[in-house]
Amino acid sequence: MTVGGVSTPFAVILVVFGALAGAVIGSFGGVVRSRGWRGALHGRSRCEACGRELRWFELVPLLSYAVQSGRCRTCGAVIGAAALLAEAAGAAVGAAAALAGIALSGR
Ligand SMILES: [Zn+2]
Asked: How far apart are CA 43 and CA 3, in angstroms?
């Protein structure tokens, strides 16, 4: 069975990767928006409430939000619902782009 011009399992993988890439880009976009390009490229992410530097595993788009319920592990403050939205929007765009690519490849 094929979707567009590729086999179904491959199509699923493409969409998942598209969504993940979109989430990362969306996450980065959210950081750029809140801290500017310099801050996004050089600074580490911090909890805005207690100032603790966030570890890499607390910055995995969507996943870390799900694990920690979007809260800082130290002070319990809610970290960026806006960031989650940016990640979700990026994931949707990435998945849509992958789907569009698959559909076009079938022509
Ligand atoms: Zn905190």
From this structure: 42
